[in-house]
Amino acid sequence: MESENPPRNIRFVAYTSEEPPHFTNESMGSRVHAQSCRKNGDNIQGMICLESLGYFTDKPGSQELPTLYGMPEETLTYTRSRGIEPTVGNYIAVVGDEQSASFLARFDDAFSRHPIPTLPLVMPEMRFSDHLCYWDEGYPAIMLTDTALFRNPNYHKHTDTVETLNFQAMASITENLVSAIKKLCS
After folding, report:
1. Which of 38, 81, 96, 103 is most buried, most CB within 10 Å of its CB?
2. Domain count of the chain?
């Protein structure tokens, strides 16, 4: 008997060449992969980019707002409605673009039961990691992040060491990610 839900392929891909001078260029590892998928006609239902998921703090004023023009008031209201103070670096952002909005909503529904609050945002200007290459190829993609440079004072510095990471939060994120992927694939 054939299943109503055919099995899905899940690929775990680690990219090289994400940082400058490759970032946004043709040599960027995720660009090479996304273009190869498009060329092969791969039916990608969604890409989840894991970007900087280890720095958390409850210190007021520890989180900058990741926008060029400030956070719109309705976004700030929504953020607070999810139990998040936008200037405290103790939540996870899930970022997508307009074409990824449906995938982002499904992922957030499957993932948001996490003890660390999540903030789903449609922010196409957040082109700071490997997900952007999938957006460019027309695939739905989201970035799961602690917001990196908007929070972590050690980001890309010699002080970015293992001692600055929150392993309990990272383990919890990993467990919830596995659960969310299972839900998305069922």
Report:
1. 96
2. 1
* CA separation for the pair 59, 15 (Å, rounded): 33
How far from 61 is each of 5, 89, 92, 157, 165, CA to CA, in Å? 46, 8, 16, 20, 19
- H helices of 2-53, in order, are 29-40
180 SS3 class: helix
Residue 99 lies in a domain: yes
Domain carrying residue 147: 47-185
Give domain status of residue 37, yes or no: no
Whether the model clears a pTM of 0.85, i.e. scores above it, the answer is yes
What's the CA gap between 88 and 65, in Å, rounded?
Answer: 10
Tokens matching residue 79: 């953020």
Instruction: Judge contact between 15 and 133, C-beta under 8 A.
Output: no
Non-local CB neighbours of 52 within 8 Å, separated by 6+ positions: 145, 146, 147, 148, 152, 155
89 with 59: CB under 8 angstroms?
yes
Helix (H, G, I), strand (E, B), or coil: what is residue 186? coil
Handedness of CA 166, 103, 75, 24 (dihedral sign): positive
Read off the pLDDT of residues 124-170 as tens digits, 9 standing for 90 and up.
Answer: 888 888 999 999 999 999 999 999 999 999 999 999 999 999 999 99
For the chain, the distance separating the N- and C-terminal CA atoms, rounded to the nearest angstrom, is 17
Is position 98 within any domain? yes
Radius of gyration of the chain (CA): 17
